[in-house]
Each structure stands twice: as C-alpha cells, then as structure tokens.
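Ticket #4471: structure export looks truncated?
Reporter: QA, pipeline team
Priority: medium

Steps to reproduce: submit the single chain below to the structure queue and open the exported record.
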Amino acid sequence: MIIIEGMDGSGKTTLAKQISFRLGNIQIKRFVTSEGPDDYDLLVERTRAVLTAHRNQVMRHQRPVVIYDRFPLISEAVYGTILRGKNHFDDDWLPLTDLFLAIDPIVIYCRPRLDSILRNIHETEDNQMDGVISKALELVNAYDELISWLQVKAHRMHSGHIIVYSYDMDEVKDVESEVRRIYRKQGVM
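Actual output as written to the record:
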C-alpha cells in the first residue's frame, strides 16, 4: 500500500503515475477530488473499511499493491483542521492512524520547495478548494508537522515507511528504488 501525500501543487498525481508505471502499472486510487468530499461521514466510513480490508489482507500475507493519490486519514487532518476548522475523523483519528501504520504502508510525502508549491497552486487556482491559496503556508507547515509526527510514530511502532520526495531535488528512480527495497522486505516483490 503506497500513499502519496502532500499539499496541492506538490506533484502527487504526477509522481503517482510515474511510480505506477515504473512498478508495472499498479492501480492508482483516489478518494476525493481537489474540491474535497461531499459527505464527510461517508469518507470516514470508507476510510475505515479500506483500512480494515487492507489489514485483513496483510494478516493473510496478501499485501495490497495499490497507490493512493492522497489518503483521507492524512489529508483530512491537515485540510479539515485548517480549512473547515475540524478533522472529521474526530476521536477515530488516532486509533485509525494506529491501524494504518500497523498495515506497514509506504507514505511518500511530496514536498518540493515552497515557491514551487505556491506557483503551482496559483496556476491551478480555478481548481482549488476555497482557502487553499490564502492558507497555503499554514497548510504546508501543518503537513510538515504531521509527516514528522508520522515518521516518529512509525519508527516507534516499527511499522510504516515515510519517504520525503521533492521533484525539485530528487529523482523518481530513487523513490522507485526505495519502494522496491521496502516491497522486497515485505515479501511483495
């Protein structure tokens, strides 16, 4: 299970397509569009169902091979809190985060330079949720903090892998190589 996360304009969708191709056209899934979900309760339930299904696969030694272009458990903690004043996962967020990390996912955090993100979101301004541009710095900082917290938690749980990728500095082949290394260790490839 590969999760590609990051702020709007950070290169997630492009990286998802490149990694999918390089790993043999792995399916790319997306929960919501850039405009956000219509029904947050349904989003929470769908996320719980996906995590439970993946956990069950892992317990049967059948690791899910799928790429998620953004994952609600991570993105809602950032966007929900800042743009809507509420993470809709509420009290379920921490237990679901534990379940998420227990699945031993690979999280690729797309984090190019701030000026690259700002340029990209301004170029796609018509496709952005309300508040993304005006609160871009706050969103980036919240992502940085959350990913840092996830890195520590994954390390403590000995489960989950966080890769930070910047298209400004890193090569896709290096991300692919790291994903392949983790997948070999997990017995996927």
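Status: closed, not a bug. The export was complete when the record was re-opened. Leaving a note from the reviewer for reference: The longest strand covers residues 106-110.
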